[in-house]
Amino acid sequence: MPMIRPLLSAAGLCLSLSLPAQALDLESMSDGDRALLRDEIRAYILDNPEIIMEAVAVLEQRQSQQQSQAGIDLVKVNADALFSDPASWVGGNPEGDITLVEFMDYRCSYCRRAHDEVAGLLEKDGNIRFIVKEFPILGDESVLASRFAIATLQVAGDDAYKSVHDALMTYTGAMNDTGFGRLADTLGLDANKIISKMNSDAVDKVIADNHALGQRLAISGTPSFVMGDQMLRGYLPQDAMQEIANEIRAN
Fold first, then answer.
1. Cα–Cα distance, 100 to 131 (Å, whole number)
2. Each residue of 65-98: pLDDT tens digit?
3. Is there a contact between 105 and 225 (Cβ–Cβ < 8 Å)?
4. What pTM, to 2 d.p., does this model score?
5. Signal sequence: where (predicted)?
């Protein structure tokens, strides 16, 4: 029976049969050779268990790279809808060198946490353009809140939208016409005009377009972000977002 010995290379674990002038053909091996090969592999792994963690690390790195590249490709294909949609509110520094897009839901607890983190980032950095994508996915009340915010933007403009957007992030009242009317009155807005706009075709289109965009980007939860050409899925603290912005600028 030919001898079988393990060989370790820089690329990982290699096994070689000492079969003269023959390539390793697992299908043509005898039962005895198969058993010996299995024993050699098992013994090598038991003697060198760290190679399992090395293999896992390599796999995770490859998967992360693949996911990052897939995200970059999705952002590139959908760049116009992400960065140039006239129906979306734009804040931060409109002339900033990096654009941050957030897909959010007013009833999402992590969106509420992220709101303060994003505000801190925009204030501290000062060179980030910020776009909000109303992306209600947590039920009827989420949809109503987004309808109210979008209607505010369409009826009363950017400043009014920001006031409503910020207020809804901490709002605990009823998500209905009465609650929205009180909120609008508190902010000095025309409640009747805004509420009458909530179920319009124009508002329907914004929500439908955002949901279609989210589907193309494989977004299934909120908050989700796009910064530059990168997809960032889930809540991120201010420091982490700043680090990513710095890396984008450096590259």
1. 6
2. 666 667 698 999 999 999 999 999 999 999 999 9
3. no
4. 0.74
5. 1-23
| Cβ neighbours, 10 Å, residue 195 | 20
Nearest to 2 by CA among 24, 25, 33: 33
- Alpha carbons 205 and 245: distance in angstroms, whole number: 31
Q: Hey, what CATH topology would domain 81-250 get?
A: Glutaredoxin (3.40.30)
Please write the tens of the pLDDT for every residue from 27-70. Answer: 777 888 788 878 888 888 888 888 777 767 766 666 656 666 67
Q: DSSP character for 26?
A: G
Beta bridge partners of 17: 4
Give the pair of three-digit tokens for residue 25: 């053909």
Instruction: Report the alpha-carbon distance of residue 88 to residue 241 in Å, rounded.
Output: 21
Among 35, 31, 40, 33, which Cα is nearest to 13's?
Answer: 40
Assigned token pair, 180: 């929205």
The more confidently predicted of residues 27 and 167 is 167
- 3-state secondary structure at position 144: helix
Q: Which residues contact 9 (CB under 8 A, 6 or more apart)?
A: none
Q: Which two tokens stand for residue 93?
A: 């520094």
